[in-house]
Amino acid sequence: MNPVDARAAMVAELEKKNGLRPGPVRDALLTLPREMLMPQAYVRRSAPGEEPPRWDLLDWSAPQDRPELLGLLYGGASVLVQHDGEPLLGRVRGTRSGASITSMSTVMGLSASLLEELDLRPGQRVLDVGTGAGVTAAVACQVCGDQEVVTLDRDRHLTDAARVRLAGLDFRPEVVCGSGEQGLPGRKFDRVFVSYAVGRVPAALVKQLASRGKLLAHVTSASPSWPALAVVERNDGGQITGELRAVEFAHRAGHGMERIWLSEDFRQRIATEPGTWTQRSMLAPPADTDRGLWLAADHLLGGLVRDFGAEHLVIGAPACGSWLRVEPVGRSRWNVTTHGPRDIWKELQDLAVRWQAAGSPSRYRLLFEPDGGQRAVSACGRLFWRLPTRRALDEGASA
């Protein structure tokens, strides 16, 4: 398959599975040669859990790499573009081991849906926060005109590469190396797009929204399990309105953001140990589609991580070692096994009652308070929580 056919196949798949609609984003994706933005990409060669991990850097200039690289670039999955913070320009193809992947191009279905949500139009001033491989910047240049686009990243290696590769597409946006959360003070933008998850919406970026402007950013706690999409807009009168939408997938966490995980050892203990007690329950666990409940749980219960690889509901609290395992045992019956100082099952069921009383929301108003605080509130006002302060996030990152 050649790149033109691969692009067409990718867009067709996005239309089928992600609901990509006719319009400027679809047109841009059909014409954008991703192999020019990402002429090199990594493929993992080591097995899960193998140490040290190993990757091969594939190169478009090497004919033997092209078939596999073409599949990576247009297959729809994340594309791994940087290992261990290295420069992207001047790399030699071959194997890398140890360390980790430090930058990747986002899953294409997620990127396309967010780009459509931005509602890009010609002449708009766009701030792309988190340059990465330059895909968002390239689409914005195609739709809005490159003179109106600024792309910003804290990693100079990424901005250096993006500047060169975007110029190769005849796009010359303003490319800036700096703090994403600070944006460009004193400037105004019609669209602001943050391509990494944050603990709260950066206040500086909200200030940089122009009249009728829109900002998109994924908001998560330290847990990666239940994210939200923040949609922030400024009206003609200058008033800011915001919404948190519970979503299934989100960008990776930004630099320095604290994250909690279930280790492989912890997962095995949850799967095999008897726990403190098991009860037979007629209460169903919350459904996966109750994303508004899970989003509330992420913030109101805190410290919980779900094992999405488990067959049934499995949740752990890494900080204290508590866990929950729920398994169906016939019609309308579940075995609920818990362990540790937290009764996660009771916490979830109590919150489910509150969530249902609030109208089972999947979206929450995001309020920006005069003191700089941010608060998520259900439409009826009965379910709410505060997002962490900037100081709390900084302390968490340095802990």
UniProtKB/TrEMBL annotation:
Keywords: Cytoplasm, Methyltransferase, S-adenosyl-L-methionine, Transferase. One of its GO terms (biological process) is methylation. Its main location: cytoplasm. Its EC number is 2.1.1.77. One of its GO terms (molecular function) is methyltransferase activity. It is found in: Cytoplasm. It comes from the Bacteria. It holds the Pfam family PCMT. PANTHER family: PROTEIN-L-ISOASPARTATE O-METHYLTRANSFERASE, PROTEIN-L-ISOASPARTATE(D-ASPARTATE) O-METHYLTRANSFERASE. Belongs to the methyltransferase superfamily. L-isoaspartyl/D-aspartyl protein methyltransferase family. This is Protein-L-isoaspartate O-methyltransferase. It comes from Streptomyces sp. 900105755.
